[in-house]
Write a structure and sequence with these properties.
Layout (H helix, E strand, L loop, with lengths): L3 H6 L1 H11 L5 H7 L3 H12 L3 H66 L1 H24 L1
Length: about 140
């Protein structure tokens, strides 16, 4: 049986579901019972002829299904948000990879063009770097 807080928190939904199930209930009937589960059961019994246990079972199922539905909806919302974030992260990574590939491709093309057009200069630079690296390693071992 729902408590007072549950009824207040979901009153519009409860009213709608009660009216769907028992069409003879009016707004005035439900207004008389607002806030009290016992009064609600009494009003529904009086107006519809349903048994107390039948009304209580209906309310219990309404709240147990409602809680499950809310939990499922919350999980679905988190799942949707996670999927959206994953898609955005994937798109960002793809764009960054494409940008990096374009930049490195441009650099590689520039280096290849430089080697082709100035082979002597490129060889001299490579030789100088080799000498510097060797000296650095040799001097590093001496200490």
């Amino acid at each position: 049986m729902p408590n007072r807080e549950q009824l207040r928190g979901h009153w519009n939904e409860v009213k709608g579901r009660l009216k769907e199930h028992w069409a003879q209930l009016t707004e005035d009937d439900l207004r008389r019972a607002e806030g009290s589960a016992d009064r609600l059961v009494g009003v529904v019994q009086q107006k519809t002829g349903a048994t107390r246990s039948e009304v209580e079972r209906f309310l219990d199922s309404l709240f147990s299904n409602g809680v499950r539905d809310q939990a499922a909806e919350t999980v679905q919302q988190y799942s949707d948000a996670a999927q959206k974030m994953a898609a955005e992260a994937s798109q960002f990574a793809k764009e960054q990879a494409q940008r990096f590939a374009a930049q490195s491709g441009d650099y590689s093309a520039k280096v290849a063009e430089r080697v082709r057009t100035r082979p002597g200069e490129t060889l001299a630079i490579a030789f100088g770097l080799g000498i510097a690296a060797g000296a650095f390693l040799f001097l590093g071992r001496k200490k």
